[in-house]
Every structure is written in structure tokens, then in C-alpha cells.
Amino acid sequence: MASRGTEQANNGFIALIVAVATIGGFMFGYDSGVINGTQDGLRAAFNLSDLSLGVAVAALLPGCAVGAFLAGRLADLFGRRAVMMTSALIFVASAILAGAASSEVLFIAARFVAGLAVGAASVISPVYISEVTPAAIRGRLSSVQQVMIIAGLTGAFLSNYWLAATAGASTEPFWLGYPAWRWMFWMQVIPAGIYFLALLLIPESPRYLMLKGRDAEAGTVLTKLFGNAYATEKVREIRESFAADHHRPKFSDLLDSSGRVRKIVWAGIGLAVFQQLVGINIVFYYGSVLWQSVGFSENDALLINILSGSLSIAACLFTIVTIDRIGRKPLLLVGSAGMAVTLAVMAWCFATATFVDGKLHMADGVGTVALVAANLYVIFFNVSWGPVMWVMLGEMFPNQIRGSGLAVSGFAQWIANFAISVSFPALASGVGLPITYGFYAASALISFFFVKAMINETKGRELEAMEG
């Protein structure tokens, strides 16, 4: 069935849909990464302590948790495309408000609102892509989401670097007399506006349409995607999958007949949480500050961020080529093992560092090892947990619980992200970087055994065949 759908697929139309939907991933990455490089400006503008800076940097994340939780359910009520369009408008408004904030409270509020859009994009784009692509190539097309997330991060880094370099520093005046760090947020309006307009070009998910009883519309979309013969059989398969347990989706569907949370839900939550416990967003949120602390200039630190982003994209491209051949589970296992080793090396490097005039200092050779280990860590993450977690969350749940399963897993992912991000400045200055990175290394090691025990392969399976 999957191969016939692939052979008859309207590849140009599918490519357009995937390209538009993954702009949501770009916005997810851009809004997450734009904070990296603005910390000096935030400290100067709002007189922030280490803890206050951690809260300001992480203010996006509670909003992401709320946005992810609501988006899964709202997508079942109003449609995948409607939720994506709403998130695009929120991206525009929140970027304007964050750049214009006159106080710490207003800035935190603006970033929380931005998080609603990021959280929605993080869960709806993958599920939408999984619902409009053939099973045989679903993994590689869904993996494009992670490429776009990294492209968004890298785009934010490039924009921030250019603005800071042109102005002289992130705190220096730029256009209209406003400091460059404020323009770092305002630049986001451009891709957000493009995202909204592009969404007008794509259809609603056929599985959502059938969930609402709009079978004729779903058949029209499926025919345009895959041809008439495949569409007719797919409509029947989707109808049968809903008929087996057809009622309005609700959160109680996540419980089994004995009232316990289904194993598939725990698997989704575990994937979402472990992706954050390995500390990946510390590299992206605090990268410039971290590398400045070991002797690099602000410009050099921003360039290192760009290097990390470029390596991430290359790693994701490898995953796109291999995920439907190798499978999801083997990539996760390789990634867990590689991250455990590289994070342990980074912990050792920080343990050998000394403080000179109150600043962390590494020997030249050790600093190089730390930089290499950090970039290898980024590669291992983006070959595996970066794209594969989102691919699996978009496809692993049965049709009836996909929205609710995504809502709960997405909420858990962003809560873990918040906990890791907001705690980093205090941990780094408290227990120290060696113990902090040692915790991330231990989490990566534990994730290896979690995948072995809890994750089932989904390569090549139709969405209607998912069980749990």
C-alpha cells in the first residue's frame, strides 16, 4: 500500500505542503535561538541578576508547554492548518512586543506569548506532515522539520551576528536609535509573515477532515496527493480505523481499559523529556555566553554558534537520507551512546578549567577538545534525537489519540526544556559546569536503555496500523 501511494504521489504538491508546513519548524528554531546573543542587552536594559537572566531566557518555555498542550487538542477541534495560521500571527505580534519591551515583566510576557506559537508549531507541523505523506518516505519528509528548526536557529544566529557586528555590539544603537538586541527580535517579523501567507496555499489534513466526517473533502485532498485509486482505498482504511473506536477525541483516550496510562503515552513522554535532559538547548540558548566564558570574544562566540548550526543541518541531512532505511530506533540508540561520551568529555574539560580574574579559563589544548566535543555532541544529537523524536511523536500514536498524545508529550517536552534552561545559570555558578554536564551525560546514558526497553520501530508502517 505504501509503495503504491509513493509511486502515484503528486510529488510536487507534497513537496509544497512539506515546505510550507516546515516553515513552522523554522519559526520554532528562530524564536528559540534569537535569545542567544541578546543576554548582554537584556542585562543592561533590565539590570538582571544571573537568576533573573535565566528566567528571562527561559520565559518562552512555559508558553511553549501551554502552546503544545493546547495545540494538540485545538488541532482536533479546528484543524491542523487553522492552528498553524494562528501561531504565525502570534509569532508576528510577540516579536514586535519583545523588541519593544520597556521592562523585565513586559519582556517576559512577550516571550511567554511567543512560546504559545513555538509550542503549537513544534507539535502540529510534524503531525500534519505525517498525515499527508506516504509511509515509505514519511520519515525523511518528517525529518525536514528538524532541518528547518536548525535552519531557524542558524538564521537567528546569523541575523544576531550581523546586527551586533554592524552596530559594534548588541548593546549599541542601530536603526532608529534602538539598540541592536531589540532589532534581533524585530527581524523575526519577516519569516513569520511569510509563514502566514504560505499557509494559505496548502490544504487541511485529510485525517482531520475524516475525523470531522468530511469524507468527500478528505477524498479530494488524498486524490490530489496520491491519485484516485490510492485515495479511495486510503479513505476506506482511515474510516475503518476511526470506526473501531469512533467518538470525539478526549484525554481519557490516553488511558487503557484498566484506567492506567497507555504504554505508548509513556513512551512518547519519555522521548520528549529525554530529548531535553541531555542539555541540547544549553548549547543554543547559552552558547555565546558559555564560549565567551572560556576566552572567546562575543563575535567569535556567535561564529561558533553558526558553526554548530551548520553542523546540525549537515547531520539532519544524513538522517533524512537514512531514516527510512535504518529505522528510527537504531538512530536513537547511536545518538544516545554518542552524546553520553561527548558530554562526559565536556564535563572533564570543564573540570580541568581554572578561574582567572573571576573568569573561567581552559588551557589551549583543553579548550580545543571542549570545542570539538561540543560540536560532535551537536552532530550526534541532530543525527538522532533532534529529528527522530519529532518524527516518532508525529507518527507513533493511533489516529484516535494522536492529538491528545501530542498534547501531553509536547507539554512534557517543553516543561523539561524549561527546567533545564532556567536552572543552567544557577547550576553553572553553583555546583559548577563539570557536575552540570555530568548530569546531561548521565541522562544520555539512561536514554539508551529507555529506548531499548520502551520504543517500538515505526519505519514503513501506515498511520492506521499504529497501536498502543
Describe what this molecule looks like in 3D.
The structure is a single chain. By secondary structure, this protein is mainly α. It has one domain: MFS general substrate transporter like domains (Growth Hormone, Chain: A, Up-down Bundle), CATH 1.20.1250. The chain is 76% helix and 1% strand. It is built from 22 helices and two strands. It has a two-stranded antiparallel ribbon with strand order 1-2. Strand 1 and strand 2 (359-361) form a beta hairpin. Helix 19 (364-383) runs parallel beside helix 20 (385-395). The model has no long low-confidence stretch (mean pLDDT 85).
Strand content: under 5%
Rg from C-alpha positions?
Answer: 22 Å
Strand order in the sheet with the most strands: 1-2
Q: What does the main sheet amount to?
A: 2 strands, antiparallel
How many structural domains does the protein architecture include?
Answer: 1
- What percent of the residues sit in helical stretches (DSSP H or I)? over 70%
Q: What would you say the CATH architecture is?
A: Up-down Bundle
Task: State the end-to-end CA separation.
Answer: 22 Å
**What spatial form do the alpha-carbon principal axes imply?**
globular
Name the structural class: mainly alpha
Name given to the CATH homologous superfamily: MFS general substrate transporter like domains
What is the helix tally?
22
Could you name the CATH class? Mainly Alpha
The total beta strand count reads 2
What letter string, H or E per element, gives the SSE order?
A: HHHHHHHHHHHHHHHHHHEEHHHH
Report low-confidence residues grouped into runs of 5 or more: none
* CATH fold-level topology: Growth Hormone, Chain: A
Q: Overall mean pLDDT score?
A: 85
